[in-house]
Amino acid sequence: MDGSGSISTPPPDEWRLAHQRLFPQWQSLALSHQAQLPIAISRVNQFDAGRLDVEMAAMLKEQLVKVFSLMKPGMLFQYEPELDAFLEFLIWRFSIWVDKPTPGNALMNLRYRDERASELRGKVRTGLEGPGLTVGQKMWYCIATVGGQYFWARLQSFSAFRRWGDSEQRPLARRAWVLIQHIEGLHKAASFANLLLFLYTGRFRNLVERALRARLVYGNPNMNRAVSFEYMNRQLVWNEFSEMLLLLLPLLNSSSFKSLFSPFSKNKSSSSKSDDGSCPICQATPTIPFLAHPCQHRYCYYCLRTRCSAAPSFRCPKCNEPVVAMQRDGGSTTNQTNPQSIDH
Fold this sequence. Notes:
Blueprint: H1 14-33, H2 43-67, H3 80-93, H4 103-107, E1 110-114, H5 115-121, H6 135-162, H7 171-201, H8 207-212, E2 214-218, H9 230-248, H10 254-261, H11 268-273, E3 289-293, E4 298-300, H12 301-310, E5 325-328, E6 333-335
Antiparallel strand pairs: 1-2, 3-4, 3-5, 5-6
């Protein structure tokens, strides 16, 4: 409204220019107030990735040990911490250092993301945006995982070899041993607390990742976790079957099964020829020959006695007759349940 009381009209392009000037501010304000979509990374995937990395290091170590198998036995045992650190360094060098996932993370479709940069941006909507680890985070990861584990393994082996825990005359060594035990206990307690937090939130599966704010996220949003239960089912069936056999086989009488399948045997002529000369149990010439009653087949004394002692209802493998007594070939008859009255 001007001084004369009339309403002034704005220029024709004023609305369009105001819209172009204010639209970016309005868009940024809307995005800043928009709720960030919560992302849920499978905890099983993260645990499986760590386990696969451990198995990969073990496979590499096994192949490397085979190279030195023809050398002096036990030579690599004293350098085992150095060997483990070298393999861990190789995995770190060709995966995390070059912005690639570790073998376990690659199989589980995971990658590391710098959570600090994602929190500062505040515009993460799918959970897959965000830069990878910085150079400093990569270096500290190597120092903590490779160098820290190597230093701790060497310190424990050195203290155990020097017997710091038994040094009553050296209070400094004893104090160092107590300090090592306290540090180990604190680390285990912190790891357990971190595990509880990880199970609750699904973020940072170990202390190193939490300290560096290195979070595992999905590398490809369209890749599903392919789980094949075929091998697991076969393994479970075989385990149950083997346990059933271990339970039932000691309860079965092998002689009964032999007599059951003897009519179907193809080698009847050879077995009939060996009826008179060999022991039905050990298939050898009887040592201290004894006759089983009532079938009168010849056995070794120890073969027949052990079978009758183990199974009171022992049956002859040749004729399937129950053995009620035993007689030395040319001697007196003895009841098979009374071994003390055998007449030698």
